[in-house]
Every structure is written in C-alpha cells, then in structure tokens.
Amino acid sequence: MTxxxxxxxxxxxxxxxxxxxxxxxxxxxxxPLQGLDTFLERVRTDAAIPGLALAVVRNDSVIxxxxxxxxxxxRTERVDAHTLFAIGSNTKAFTxxxxxxxxxxGRMHWDDPVTQHLPEFRLFDPYVTRELxxxxxxxxxxxxxxxxxxxxxxxPFDRSEVIRRVRYLEPNTSFRSQFGYQNIMFVAAxxxxxxxxxxxxxxxxxxxxxxxxxxxxxxxxxRALQGVANVATPHSRxxxxxxxxxxxxxxxxxxAGSINSSVLDMAQWVRMLLGDGELDGRRILAExxxxxxxxxxxxxxxxxxxxxxMRHFSAxxxxxxxxxxxxxxxxxxxxxxxxxxxxxxxLPEENLGLVLLTNSDAHSIYSPLTYDIxxxxxxxxxxxxxxxxxxxxxxxxxxxxxxxREMEARRVTGTRPSLALENYAGTYDSQxxxxxxxxxxNGRLVATRFDTLRAPLEHWHYDTFRATWxxxxxxxxxxxxxxxxxxxxxxxEVDGLGRxxxxxAQGRDR
Amino acid sequence: xxxxxxxxxxxxxxxxxxxxxxxxQQLGRLDDYVTRAMAAWEVxxxxxxxxxRDSIVxxxxxxxxxxxSRERVDEHTMFAIGSSSKAFTALLLxxxxxDGAAKWDDRVIEHLPWFQVFDPYVTREMxxxxxxxxxxxxxxxxxxxxxxxxxxxxxxxxxxWLEPSWSFRSQFGYQNIMYLTAxxVVEELSGSTWDTLVRERIFTPLGxxxxxxxxxxxxxxxxxxxxxARIEGRVTxxxxxxxxxxxxAGSINSNVREMAxxxxxxxxRGEYGGQRVVxxxxxxxxxxxxxxxxxxxASERLYPETHFRTYGLGWFMEDYRGRRLVHHGGNIxxxxxxxxxxxxxxxxxxxxxxxxxxxxxxxxxxxxxxxYIDGPGRDWSAxxxxxxxxxxxxxxxxxAARDSSRARDTSPSLALERYAGTYxxxxxxxxxxxHEGGRLRATYGPAFDGALEHWHYDTFRARWxxxxxxxxxxxxxxxxxxxxxxxxxxxxGEFNRQADSxxxxxxxxx
Lengths: 510, 510
Prior knowledge:
The complex is a heterodimer of chains A (510) and B (510). Chain A is of the alpha+beta class and 510 residues long. Chain A has helices spanning 36-46, 92-104, 114-117, 126-131, 134-137, 159-165, 183-197, 201-210, 254-257, 263-274, 287-294, 366-378, 385-409, and strands at residues 51-58, 61-69, 85-86, 235-238, 241-244, 260-261, 278-279, 282-283, 298-299, 314-316, 321-325, 328-337, 340-347, 352-358, 426-430, 434-441, 444-449, 453-461, 464-468, 476-483, 489-494, 498-502. Chain A is globular, with a radius of gyration of 23 Å. Chain A starts with 35 loop residues before the first helix and ends in an 8-residue tail after the last strand. Chain B folds into two domains: 46-360, 3-Layer(aba) Sandwich (Beta-lactamase), CATH 3.40.710; 416-509, Beta Barrel (Lipocalin). Chain B is globular. Chain B has helices spanning 21-41, 86-98, 108-111, 120-125, 128-132, 152-158, 176-190, 194-203, 247-250, 256-267, 280-286, 297-302, 360-373, 380-404, 501-509, and strands spanning 45-52, 55-63, 79-80, 228-231, 234-237, 253-254, 271-272, 275-276, 291-292, 309-311, 316-320, 323-332, 335-342, 347-353, 421-425, 429-436, 439-444, 448-456, 459-464, 471-478, 484-489, 493-497.
C-alpha cells in the first residue's frame, strides 16, 4: 500500500469526465430501479466506501433518493438522502450560474474581460491578461493547465491573494490551445462576480441559487457545518486502511469547489437544470443562461476511445463536462476534495439526472458507477464498469507501492550533504507559493510552511532531503537544495512546486 | 421518498446490420429521390458516388452539364470541389510531418519567418494546427484573393493588416488565408509547389488521373460541368472562376469516380489499395476535434440528432444519431460539393453539383447515411429546403429593410467628379474611382468594375459588371477641408484617399 503520497498526487482530484468501456446494445425492459439498492450496497462494500448517497431525477420527479452505509467508519449513524457531503468541483456549475444571473441582470457579460471587473487581475502573459474573458475563466482554456493548486490548498492565502499570485504561474500550453483544468480561474470568475455585484460569491450562491431552489441544508463553507447534524465525515486511505480524516477548509477556493450539500438538495438543482432554468413553475435561471452553461466551449480530448465507442465528442461547457452518449447529450461533472468524491450527471433529452455523493476519496468508482447507473436507467447494456474500476484501484495501489519502492531503490547510498546542516537553514520564497522555512531543531532539519505544516527532513542523497509532512494529505516530498558559486545555499526545489529562492534576510513577506 | 417508480424506457439504438438486399433496393430508389430533390432545389447537374467497405457501390450522374444543353452529367464529369480541397492541404502537411519535416504544434514562424498577423502574440503563438482549424480569430478577408491578381504569397504577406474579428482561438471563424498559409508552409518544407505535391502525393497514388488543381487544366477536357448561379431569380450558367491564388484553400477539380478513391483513402485511415499514403496516427489528428463550431437554436431544432459540431484539420465533424460524421463541403462560384463519411459504418460519399451555394448535397448526405443506419428516415431534402427558404426570406426581408432605409431626396455633398481618385487600404490595395460620362465608376482588381449609383448623402452603390459579384455599398467621408478623405467599402473596410490622387484624377477627367 502507498503509505504516503508525494505532494503532487495529494492535490485534490477535482474533476473529470469519464473513462471506461462498452460494446453491443440490447433493450432492458425491466424496472430500471429494480435491484439498484442491492447493486449500490454491494459496490459500496466492494469499494470500501463508508457512506454513499444517490438521487435520481426523472421527468421532474425524484424517483430515487437514499443513503447507504454510515456517516463515519466505526460509528452507527446511517447516511440518508439528507446527509451533507462536500460536492467539490460540482460547485463550478453554480459559479457559472451565478455569473449567468449577473449577465441576466446586465451587470456583466460572458465575453467581458476578467480585468473589466477585477482590474488588478494579471496573468503571466500580457496578451492573455488582456484577452481572458469570463467565458475563458469558466471553461478551462486559460493555458495554465492543472497547476497552481498549491497556492490555495492548505494555505492561509485568501481568495484575492490566491488570484494575485496566479500571475507568476507560467503557462502550460498556449492560450486556448487546449483543455487544461484550472481551479484558480474559477476563483477569479467568482471574485469578478462578487466585485460586479457588491456581494460575496457565497452570498450570491445563497441568494440566487440555494435559497430559491430550496436547498436549505446546503452551504458554501465547512465553517457552516459547525453544529449541524447528519454530516458525513470524510475518509481517505492511510497506511492501507480507509479511515476518517479532518474536513479541509477550502474557502479560499470557494468558487472552484466549496459547496456542501445532500442528494435531495442537489436534486433540486438538477430538476432546475433539466427544466431549462425553471423549478416548480418558478424561473431560477433564464433559458439562455442554462443554454450557455451547457454549450461546448472547449474541446476536452479527442472524444474517441475504443472503450467508449458510443462517445464521439468530449467538451467542457461552463462548469460542466459534455459528451455525446448513445446519441444523447450527456452533461457530467465530478467533484473531489479531501475525503469526498461526487458526480452530477444529466441527460436532458431523457429528462434524466442523478447525483452521487460519497464520503471517501480512496476509490475511483464515482464516474464508472455513474455510467452504470445511467445505463440501468436508459436501458443500455449493463457493463459493470464499477467492478472494473475497483479492480483497477487495487492494481493502481500496487503500482504506486512499487513506484515508491523503485524510488527508494534509486536513492544513492554513501553520499552526504555538501555543507553542515545549519547552512541549509533559512527562509526560501516562491512568488507563487509563498515561503518554506528550513530550521535546525535538535540537530535535524525541519521544513515548515505557514506554521501549519511541518516536515522533518531526512537526508536522501547529495543535497536532497526527504520531507514527511505532518498533514498526511501531503505525504512525502523530496527537497533538493542548490548551491551557488560561492558555495552557499541559493535555492531549494520541492518536487511539484518548483523553485524557492533563499531570502536575503529574515522576516520577508510570505 | 420515492424509492422505486416505474419509468418508461427508451431504447437508444441498434446498429443496422450491414450490407443487405434491402439496402440495395434502397440505393436503387435513391435515383428517384435525387432527381426529385434536384428539381426542388433547382440544381442542373449532379454527380454522386457512394463508397462502402472500400468499394464503390454507387456512382452516377444526374441532370446536365449546362442548363439547356443535352450533355448529361456522368460519374466522370469534372466539377470544382472548392473547399473540400482543404483536407488535401491538411493531408499534405500530415505526410510532411510523417517525413519528420515538421510537427503539428510547430509555430508557423518556425517555417515561414516572414509570416505575420495583426497581433504580435498571435504571430508568435500560431501553430500549424491553428492555421488548419479556423481558430485564428481572423474573419475572412477573402477579397484579397477572390477575383484579384495577387499571388498566394502576396495574399499571405498582406494578412498582417487584417484586424482580428475575435480574440485568438476564442471561436470558430472560417479562414481561407490560413489555408494559403498552410500551403506556403507545405512549399517551404517540401521545396515543391503545393500543386505538384498534391499530384505526387495524392492524385498519383490514388489514380486520380484527370483531377487537377487549376481551371487551366479544364480547358482541353471534354466532360466538364458549367457553373450555374441564380441571377435575378433565374438559374443561369456563369463563367468559371480562376482561384489559383487560393489553391490550398479550394482550387481542386475532380469527378465523383476519382473522388471516391479519396474517400476510400480516408475510410482506410490513410491507406489506399494496400499502399500507405499517410500514417494512421497523423490521419487520426486530422479527424480529432480542434475547434467548436457554435450553433443557433433554429438549427438545433432542425437537427436534434446532432449535439456537437466541430472542426478538425480540413474536416468538419459532428455527431449524428449516435455516430460520428466527418465531412467538408465546397462552394465556389457556381459549384457546390460535399465529401462525407460515417466511419462507424465504413461508408462515405461524394456529391458534386454545378449549382452555386446549394444546400442540396448536405440533405442527400443525411438521406444516404440514414439508409446505412436503419433505412429511410426524415425527408431531409423537403425539410431543409423549407428551412432554407425561410432563412432566405428572412435575409430578403432584412435586405428590403435596408433598402427602405435609404434616405430620399438627398444629394452628394460634392460634385461627382470630386469623388474621383485613388483610395488605398494597406490590406486590400487600391480602389480607383473615376468620373466618366457624368457617372462615377469604381474598380478593384481585375474583377470588380462597376458604376456607382447615388444611394443617399455621400453613400453610393456599386453594381458590378460581373453579375455574380452583386452590389456593394461605398460611403465617402469628407475631411475638414471638405475633400473626400476616405471611402468605406462594405465588407472590406476603409480605403484612404491618396494625397496626390486629387489633382491627378481631377486633371485626368477635365
């Protein structure tokens, strides 16, 4: 088992479109809900998921809504359709909808440059700063790629500081040349909406969406869960076992993923989207807004996949993944944050939608299970992609364990640091990620970040040390120091985060 | 909560069994359908070939080469394929990439150092993929080459003055000059002309012996269709347009028999008759979506079978009834063509017609592909014709509204001869306005030559001698001295009056 993961892979797994398989077709004429309970309970057990909830909406009715398993491993309270989970990146479509409301009110336009509302907003390239629109920010085509998450993840920076620092993130691909999942652009979109309206993103979501949709148990921050009953506990794999972990506060990335909700509350959102913006005869979003959110904006992959022969196109709308599935448009998004994974899926032509929430991040069945449930509901052949995914998870854990052993084997023995340990102590700074402090404590080097994260350093080889972080989500990382021509330590490099330069004096801004 | 409810199941699709006697019968009945559709759409002549499982299963001509003549179209009759040529240019680049001469993500300036577009960032970032996928942000600029005597290279060199219509890669915008740019890259990489390379690398291996890249080649050929257009309400033969200077964007001429070989190459993923023309990997790139093509609600209502419209490299791609269609039309003066494939059924077709801007080929495509899915489906010809007529009426209404907005009883600010002069645009070159026999006359390049009739105030309408070119509105603006400073030409932009042209033109006339 992977005991600890390196920083890079500890990034919250917000997103994704899908991956699995399917051959021939055959009609199912049974009740599609027949046996669904048994199936879900079996999957939950097989995938070692403590708690799971599912709601299915068809023809504007909730035809299925129930929970399976427990709120927390080792306890007895059951998950039900009212249990609150973190929905992670399924928040993104809410952010797009909030922007849509402001478009409807004439306060902004989809094609407004973000700088029109956040004049201080800067990206690495001046052309991109000038050209990046609200639409771009909501459709993962900034060119920054899936990077920069460590600016916000477990840092003390607030949303505006997160956005300020993204200017130092070098582009990964040329602007709009390809899909690249980007959380901070959603934070920027949310902050732009806040600035344009004079209300916080959290207030906008509550006022324009949660309240009118009757999502009364839902909220936009882990802070709002204090004292609330029936809240799922997040779980992750630690030392081989699925165990309860702490809720992660991601308020500083709120518009990219901080909503908490239940399957019944989320069913309201799904009914509204399937109703082209209307819920119970009340208009929540203009039809044009729903259309905009569901229109393809960015090509996401080639779409072709020998395991998915019924799919030809994959794209991203505004906060929603899009594809064609058996000749129908499928809208789908996943969400993941520490200890929680979820999926929302809609087939508007079938007037069908579902919400799947789980309280574990130690599995990858959220997407295949969603397809399996859809296949049951639409009478497509049953492929049991979930079983395959559970097998793959086992294989992947073994592969990760092997990779770790191989990494250990690449450690060069018999080397020692170039300098005495105290010479490595100091403050190292990155414009992007802030400071790493290296201190000497009782003859050992210790790395600290923001007084919240500590890692004793063990010598690895040459001037490379291995850090074992106090927050298990960060796992272990290798830190390599570089000497300058005078033989002094000039910088350090943390794998996945790049270079931190040694600050000339103490007490620099972090 | 509703745990279990009966829901109506929808059966998505069943792949039609392949070759069947029923299909042979249906193909037989196709003749009638095509004949009736041609009459409805007023298309004088048409060639159609269908390729299924690497064989030509249907190839014949309909109607006449020239209206009021007796010469029948057959499967050897030559037509212009127009923009269906673009896939030839993309394929040539693919073969050069196979050779290792370039990569898809190479920047254009790496191969054409003199290449420049309006915005420096875009000049720097534009890749071979971008020039082949209509995402440059430049709208057409076609009057640089259409009816002009500029060379391909001249046209590409002038594109630096074409101001972007949209932000780079923000949306689909059809761009012929970028295909000319791709042609220049092909010539730079190969050291031969685009025309030679099309012959050597495509026509020859495919046995396309009579196909050509210039209308020059048609002069000596016996079986050539004449182009037709609707002029003052009547379908009339018109002259062939020489578009050699836009070759890589659309100058190929061929017949359905030879184009069937091209379709076989495509369905063979780059292999034809056991011979590999382009690698499967680079063929796949051409069929990978690169740019999203936006749709409007009216066309979404007409085509509910389609959810995604995209452009690859030289090909449009869309989903249709759960299958992928790959296609590209071609329209040049008096000719409408279409090459289309439904790879999952290993079927493709070529439709060549001698009628200007006709929607008929796309309706026949759907009719024929429906036969391969599950037999005759919608009456595409009738439905789309009704839709097209409706759109045409709307366009005519808009034109009528514009005509009626003409202000009455105005006269030009100046005596007519004072508008005479030479007007320059750094993009397009020169428009010459002369005063002859009491009337103003405008000329632009060798093709545009027409009298100016006063419209209102300082606006005139040019009625071009070539009826195919229609009319164009020109508006003169006076400077503070009361002299014409510039003329704004509809669809082209502003041309500034040359300082010395005042005295010269005036002197010449008096």
